[in-house]
């Protein structure tokens, strides 16, 4: 639908590979994105700035390791008893005046939300930044029903106005610089509502003010809002949204109807568990001691008259139950969407978020997306290989997800699917195993390789060519090490 119009307004960019798993494999997409010098410059500057600030914020806490262990333990406990805590959450939300809906997949979740909006008689909604709604392609589904969804997060607004896709968990428009953002605002804001001011420059203050003026009229007239949730407290039925701009607070308090779409893994058992995550999340994501806006709500409008009069919670599965059944892979469901792993990943920094073909890019996307969508498509089967296994992602993860372990586990799953490339790989490993089990065969092979080293090609033939496309073959020595050792060891012994 990208580039078209609906009800006189631009339509949303198609969800494409983000929601469906179609599109080129990671190596194919990365081969293009890594040649984009402006993209690499934008990413390098942004990720290095964020990770340096995060390191300073984390260093302020002497008990960071203990907090990290506590976050991991709470999440693991919750996942082991997820059925119990979800039912407790449903009961608490219902008692507080809300309505809980269960969605097995994206199609069911989109149908529920669309029906709820249509029942209000409205044809537009304001949205708080939400990875879950991106995952299911909610904006596109609502547009198909004649409903326009306005993104109110500054970065999401940039992405929406630019007919673009998010490329980062925390900063969806991280791949854009200030000049590009100014051009997008100047060219597209008028088509969505209030136009950009005349003479708009790329000053951050001017860009923020342009967005504020553009969005304010939407906040004031909106009757329906859609959001996600960072956490859901089973004990009280409370939902939590943390953000930095205040747009979320506007969406959560002004509209009459609030619809929250949240993955089932976002539940935590007790109110006091928030103490741990409210320290882990802001320092790992925005490198702040606490988020400027932390909104918590339980059910519908209270006696003070603030908040929605009609609240709906859509609990989303969409592959999470299947991931939960995997004893190694389930740890990805601990993720609190802080994006720290993206900011330290050398692969993400060079390839960018769009190469992952998912709303979940970077290391966490490489382990989460194949579990939610399966590994049948080329892009999803390639994601577990989108890593150097350096381990930096594990070191910064605030809930200690061992991403390298899950990557290797998923690679094993993909290899088990077969295919010509994997059959050749198994044959090569089998041959290497035979040689290593027979020292005489290995020694003979080493001597032959040493004598023929001048005849070796600089690029491997056949499937091996993919390896040497980006690497140089190591030079072979004139004699094998074992021959050199035998010769020099005998000389030493003779002395």
TrEMBL record:
Residue intervals of the LUD domain: 88-314
Region (Disordered) spans which residues? 1-34, 455-478
Electron transport among the record's keywords?
yes
Q: Where is the Lactate utilization protein B C-terminal domain?
A: 412-488
A Pfam family matched by this chain, by name?
LUD_dom
> Per the database record, which ranges form the 4Fe-4S ferredoxin-type domain?
332-401
List, as start-end ranges, the regions of compositional bias called Low complexity. Answer: 10-27
UniProt keywords, alphabetically: 4Fe-4S, Electron transport, Iron, Iron-sulfur, Metal-binding, Repeat, Transport
Q: Where is the composition biased (Basic and acidic residues)?
A: 469-478
Output this protein's name: LutB/LldF family L-lactate oxidation iron-sulfur protein
Report the source organism.
Kitasatospora cystarginea
């Amino acid at each position: 639908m990208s580039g078209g119009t609906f009800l006189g307004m631009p339509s949303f960019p198609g969800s494409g590979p983000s929601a469906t798993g179609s599109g080129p494999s990671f190596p194919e997409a990365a081969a293009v994105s890594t040649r984009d010098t402006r993209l690499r410059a934008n990413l390098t500057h942004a990720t290095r700035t964020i990770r340096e600030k995060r390191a300073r914020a984390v260093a302020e806490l002497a008990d960071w390791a203990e907090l990290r262990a506590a976050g991991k333990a709470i999440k693991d406990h919750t996942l082991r008893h997820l059925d119990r805590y979800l039912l407790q959450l449903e009961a608490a939300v219902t008692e507080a005046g809300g309505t809980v809906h269960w969605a097995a997949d994206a199609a069911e979740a989109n149908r529920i939300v669309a029906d709820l909006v249509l029942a209000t008689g409205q044809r537009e909604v304001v949205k708080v930044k939400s990875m879950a709604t991106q995952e299911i392609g909610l904006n596109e589904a609502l547009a198909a029903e004649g409903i326009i969804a306005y993104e109110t997060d500054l970065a999401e607004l940039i992405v929406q106005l630019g007919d673009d896709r998010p490329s980062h968990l925390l900063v969806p428009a991280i791949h854009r610089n200030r000049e590009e953002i100014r051009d997008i605002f100047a060219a597209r804001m008028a088509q969505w509502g209030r136009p950009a001011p005349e003479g708009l420059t790329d000053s951050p203050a001017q860009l923020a003010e342009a967005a504020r003026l553009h969005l304010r009229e939407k906040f004031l007239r909106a009757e329906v809002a859609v959001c996600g949730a960072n956490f859901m407290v089973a004990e009280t039925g409370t939902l939590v949204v943390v953000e930095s701009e205040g747009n979320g607070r506007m969406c959560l308090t002004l509209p009459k109807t609030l619809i929250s779409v949240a993955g089932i893994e976002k539940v935590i058992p007790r109110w006091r568990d928030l103490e741990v995550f409210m320290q882990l999340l802001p320092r790992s994501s925005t490198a702040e001691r606490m988020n400027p806006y932390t909104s918590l709500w339980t059910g519908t409008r209270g006696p003070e008259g603030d908040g929605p009069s009609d609240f709906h919670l859509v609990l989303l599965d969409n592959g999470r139950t299947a991931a939960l059944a995997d004893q190694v892979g389930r740890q990805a469901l601990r993720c609190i969407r802080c994006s720290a792993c993206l900011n330290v990943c050398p692969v993400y920094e060079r390839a960018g978020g769009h190469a992952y073909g998912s709303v979940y890019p970077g290391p966490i996307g490489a382990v989460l997306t194949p579990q939610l969508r399966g590994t049948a498509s080329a892009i999803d089967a390639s994601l577990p290989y989108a890593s150097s296994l350096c381990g930096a992602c594990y070191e910064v993860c605030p809930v200690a997800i061992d991403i390298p372990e899950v990557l290797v586990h998923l690679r094993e799953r993909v290899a088990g699917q077969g295919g010509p490339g994997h059959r050749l790989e198994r044959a090569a490993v089998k041959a290497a195993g035979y040689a290593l089990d027979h020292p005489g065969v290995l020694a003979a092979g080493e001597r032959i390789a040493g004598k023929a080293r001048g005849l070796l090609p600089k690029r491997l033939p056949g499937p091996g060519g993919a390896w040497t496309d980006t690497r140089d073959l190591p030079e072979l020595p004139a004699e094998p090490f074992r021959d050199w050792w035998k010769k020099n060891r005998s000389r030493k012994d003779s002395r």
